[in-house]
Amino acid sequence: MLRRNFAIVSLVTYGYKTKPQRIIQLTVSKLQGTHYEPIFHTNVNPEEPIPSYVGNRTGLTDAILHQAPSFLDIAQRLLNELDDYILVAHDASLIHYALQSEFNYLGFAFNAAHLCTKRLAKKLMPNMTSYDLSYLTRVLNIPYEEGNYSDRLGQAVSILFQRLVLLDEKGDLISNLLNSKTGKLKNAIKDSHGSKFSQLPNTPGIYKFQNSEGKVIYVGKAKNIKKRVLSHFYSNSKKERLLCESTSDIDFERTGSELIALLREADLIDKLNPIYNYIQKKDYITYHIISQKNKLGLMELKIERRPFMHSPNEIFLKRGDAIKRLIELTSKFRLCPLKTGLKSRLGNCYLDEFSNCDGVCQGKEDIGTYNNKVANALQYIVNEKDNYVIFEKGRVEGEKCLVLVLHGVYQGYGYLDHSQSIASINELRNFIDNKKHSYHTAKIIAAYRTRYPRKVRLIEENDIR
């Protein structure tokens, strides 16, 4: 097996080449050596009605896709996952074009190296009657159920690719195909950039593009700073061309880990407001559980959408997460599902899903007693927020990095020597550079916790174990 990192990408899309392709379903899996790992599979909200023929073919509807994340929501994660990976797909050029179309629409550079299993099969198995995926999987006895589902496609392509790699024993064919895709820099590089490129490290961190006046015009993050910076100059995007033409100097900071690079990028964009960073300038909507009294003086809970702002109440990045929390509160504090918005019928609730309602909707429970339960539920979601620290590798050997979150609020990050020990939160604070809690830092840390739960160490207020 080749000593390279491969990402198997499959998707469902619609649109024409003259217009941005819209992706509505996406699956990414990774192949390192013989280890195959599914990374994520998701529907994608195109933020517009889908054509009827697409719905008929896929079974997806506008209602289903409305609940899915938009491409903007997954764009940064997708760039992170594909960074330093070779994209593998059946009809890889079409897959690459669809991704590039979506990324270019958002102002991202995307020009990943890619390999096509159809093209590989033609080279390595020249006598096949057909090279369609359905035919190849049938002949090679690869499990594959036809349909417009990207996860099925991804599983079949991954097995096919591993079979093809075994046929290319020395890896010469794949190496030649990859080398043939190596192009020249599309955007002009000023003389001063040549020496700058040679100084860029192949490590995680952030980089800053500066204009002739020394003002930062773009901030980016990368697992591999040098490779990511060069990708801007390889891009044929109009936005990338304007950025590169405006750049007179390139600076960088090593961070040691991708998590710190993401947090540092968010911090710098908020402080410097670079003109070419478009995504983080948008007003992002979050979801909150709030209470309000009705005409009878009864406290009712509901989910409210509003622009992100720091709040003592719990903040949810997705409406589905807010609904889950509301279900938990309704059950835990014996609240009425009609009064928490989980039931929409008029009159009394029916205890088919929630058996804990004490009858406030039927006049069996005193309003004051019920309001106290609502107050306890609201206090619970304030106090129940975790205090925790995340330890990541540092910038150099013998160093580690830590990220501190108290009561659900991001405090900042810092570096310390492996030999240093910490006995309390107050000591921990001494190692932290205070940073701003924002929508982006909240989203970055939430995604990290989901993916790496074992790296999150819960702490008490007065000591760390």
Automatic annotation (TrEMBL):
Short name of one Pfam family: RNase_T
Residue ranges annotated for the GIY-YIG domain, each copy included: 202-278
Protein name: GIY-YIG domain-containing protein
One of the record's GO cellular component terms: excinuclease repair complex
Membrane-spanning parts: none
GO molecular function, one term: exonuclease activity
Record GO biological process: nucleotide-excision repair
Species classification: Bacteria, Pseudomonadati, Bacteroidota, Flavobacteriia, Flavobacteriales
